[in-house]
Amino acid sequence: MTSARTRAMPIELSVTSDPRQMTVVRAVVAKASGLAGFTERDQAMVALAVDEVCTNIIKYSYRNDPTRPIRVRCVPGPSGIEIVIRDFGEKPREATLTPKRPGTTRLGGRGMHFLLSIMDKVVFDVSPTKGTISRLAKALPAPSAATEESATWHNPDTTTFIVRRAKDGKADAQVRPPAKPRRAAHPQ
Fold first, then answer.
1. Could you give phi then psi for residue 82, rounded to 5 degrees?
2. Taking a C-beta distance cutoff of 8 angstroms, is the pair 128, 116 a contact?
3. Does residue 62 sit in helix, strand or coil?
4. What is the average pLDDT value for the chain, to the nearest integer?
5. Contact (CB, 8 A) for 5 and 74
6. Angle at which helices 22-36 and 40-56 pack, to 10 degrees?
7. pTM above threshold 0.85
8. How far from 61 is each of 72, 106, 116, 165, CA to CA, in Å?
9. For the domain 4-139, what is the CATH code?
10. Strand, coil or helix: what is 60?
11. pLDDT of 115-133, one tens digit each?
């Protein structure tokens, strides 16, 4: 039997450069990442990386014009996901595509570090006559990094913390808010 990940088809989305459309883009990218097999945390992180690229397109390529097209293509597969983002605006300057040196005090320019910390591959193709093709890719974690041990601490009055340590030594933590208090039954 084949898994859902091997049967996933590319998902294509066309939106305008209106910042309000980014909610739709993030939701679609997160869902496509889920089809590829990513955890909810990684789905959210991939969606944030795409949001970063789209926000820069809106701000710099389209100079905040909310009517310009942005095309997003998500290709979930058995080994991860590839996302292609296409715009038709001004090309980015080469300096903006280079990660800023750590310790620099100038505002802005941290988006590349952010993208590279989330995605395994980040490529900006400025060869089209107009605009840029941005390619982002993230591979699923190797099976050897599967969860080895986990621990849960729970206090019903406060919060639940779940920490999982993988074989590679990295820890994944989840925090759950306290459960809603139950109403006490009134004696008759």
1. -120, 135
2. no
3. coil
4. 78
5. no
6. 140
7. no
8. 16, 21, 21, 42
9. 3.30.565.10
10. helix
11. 888 999 999 998 888 999 9
From CA 16, how far away is CA 178, in angstroms rounded?
39
The number of beta carbons lying within 10 Å of the beta carbon of residue 149 is: 9
How is the chain split into domains, by residue range?
Answer: 4-139, 144-176
What tens digit of pLDDT does each residue of 21-59 get? 999 999 999 999 999 999 999 999 999 999 999 999 999
- The H or E element containing residue 175 is strand 171-176
CA–CA distance, 184 with 188 (Å, rounded to integer) = 12
Who contacts 161 (Cβ-Cβ below 8 Å, separation ≥6)? 152, 153, 173, 174, 175, 176
Distance of CA 23 to the CA centre of its chain: 12
Q: Of 181, 178, 176, give the one whose Cα is nearest residue 161.
A: 176
Q: Which amino acid is at 171?
A: A
| Residue 172, Cβ density class (10 Å: 0-12 exposed, 13-18 middle, ≥19 buried) | middle
